[in-house]
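lol forgot to send this yesterday, sorry. struct tokens for the thing we talked abt
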């Protein structure tokens, strides 16, 4: 049986994703592309707090190999224990950035990561699925 699946039905956490993307676009539109990463993170945290969406900021993620700890990473945000958000101010989101978010998703067990790059006049973003 063939079913028609809309783009909205393909999205993971569509309502939360749309709210988050709205926040990211609002922050980018208001601040532009001239600030450091920490400024965008602070602005995002303010907006997430207003919507009661901020779950965790600067989340420590430990990596292990055969039950031995290898080290740790720090993810920028985890939102409603569903979406991992990484902010960047770089020339272009690279495969290494995507791999980084995949490692974070695997370590946390989350399904969806979003990378937002504020470097240019237009917000660049990537959705990463685990």
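and heres what i got for the seq, position by position
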């Amino acid at each position: 049986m063939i079913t028609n699946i809309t783009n909205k039905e393909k999205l993971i956490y569509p309502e939360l994703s749309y709210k988050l993307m709205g926040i990211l676009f609002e922050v980018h539109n208001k601040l532009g592309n001239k600030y450091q990463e920490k400024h965008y993170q602070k602005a995002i945290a303010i907006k997430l707090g207003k919507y009661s969406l901020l779950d965790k900021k600067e989340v420590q993620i430990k990596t292990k190999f055969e039950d031995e700890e290898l080290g740790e990473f720090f993810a920028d945000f985890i939102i409603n224990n569903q979406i991992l958000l990484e902010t960047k101010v770089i020339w272009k989101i690279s495969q290494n950035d995507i791999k980084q978010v995949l490692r974070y998703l695997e370590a946390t067990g989350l399904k969806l990561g979003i990378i937002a790059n504020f470097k240019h006049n237009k917000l660049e973003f990537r959705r990463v699925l685990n």
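The mean pLDDT is 90. anyway ping me if u want another try
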